[in-house]
Amino acid sequence: MANAASALRVNAIELLRSPGSVREVAVTVPAEAVGVDDARVSGEVVVALTATSSVDGIVVHGTVSTPWHGQCRRCLRDVDGVAVGQVEEIYQVDPRLEDAVAIVGDQIDLAPVVREYVLLELPEAPLCRDDCAGICPQCGADRNESPCDCDNTVTDLRWSALEGLRLDDPAD
Ligand SMILES: [Zn+2]
Ligand SMILES: [Zn+2]
Prior knowledge:
Bound molecules: zinc ion
Low-confidence stretches: none
Shape: elongated
Helix content: 10-25%
Mean pLDDT: 90
Number of strands: 7
C-alpha cells in the first residue's frame, strides 16, 4: 500500500524547474490505495497519467479506469463494465486559474484526483443494455426472455418518468 501511495506522487519541484519536462505515471493500484471503498469496484485501478510542466504550472492528463460490477436497474441481471475517467487537471504553486489545484509542499499527490474520477465514472444505475425490457411488475417475467401479455401501460409510464429524472446516467 505504501508503494501504491508513493507511485502516485509526483515531484513538483523537479518538474517546475524545467518547463516542458514530462513525467509518466503508469501504475495499477488497489482501489483502497486511493481511498475508494465502493462495492461496485470489482478490480484494481489502472492509472495512466502524464504530468507536463510549463511556466504556468503542471498539467496532469490521461485516464484512470477500473472494472465495476453491478445489477441492471431494470432486470436485475449482473452487469460488468469498465469505468474510464478522462483526467485533465492543472496544478499551480499559487493558483491563479479558477480550476487549478494548489501545489502544497514539494509533491503532487495524485491519489485524490484518481479517487474523484473513479467515483465520478461508476454507474449509479446501470443497464444490461440500453433497450433492456426489464421485469414485468405484474407477473415477474423477464421481458427480455419471455414477453408477457400483461398490460403495463401505467407502470411503464411511471418508470420512464422516473428514469427521465436520471439525466446524466454515466452508464448510458
Ligand atoms: Zn437488464
Ligand atoms: Zn407480465
